[in-house]
Task: structure prediction
Amino acid sequence: MNQYQYENLTIEVLDEPTYKFGSADNNFNYSKHYFSNGATEYPTSKYGIKIYQNYKIIDNCIIIGSGGATSIHQNSSLIDKEQLLICCCDTVFCLTIPNLELKWKTQADRATCFQIFKQQDDYIIHGEIQIAKLDKNGVIKWEFSGTEIFVSIDNEEEFKIENDGILLTDFAKTKYKIDFDGKLIWDTYKR
Result:
């Protein structure tokens, strides 16, 4: 679970793996439902969002995604001004605070969006297949792909933001450095 303090509100973002859309047997019935493309038929990940004020829920929603499964972790969501941004499967969702209205959603990877980071007025998305930069309206500014997916099975750090760019390591252990405009600075690919 991710928990945020925003003004006098507490915002919780939690995994809801057993939630079934339209079922009366859910532990909590969310008032709003937002879906990624294809999620109504083939849901993979489900995230509940609850906003509390003085320990009472004042609003709530659930995001239901399809594609590569994801989970809630430290960098899967963030608060930026009066909005909550969340990676769910292949899509980034932007919700307004405090009423949790969907402002925009963008498919930022063809498989899975793992992490989201603020970078000046934009957002950097660490996806499985690509790294993307979204503007504040969810428009993709650029995408960068390597020769393999940006996933590690031996705990090697596959994504790191530095002052002058982003360090990446793909599944084949090729290393890349790109700038904040998505341009390759160097790589270790054997040509």
Summary: The longest strand covers residues 56-65. The chain has a mean pLDDT of 95. Residues 1-107 form one domain.
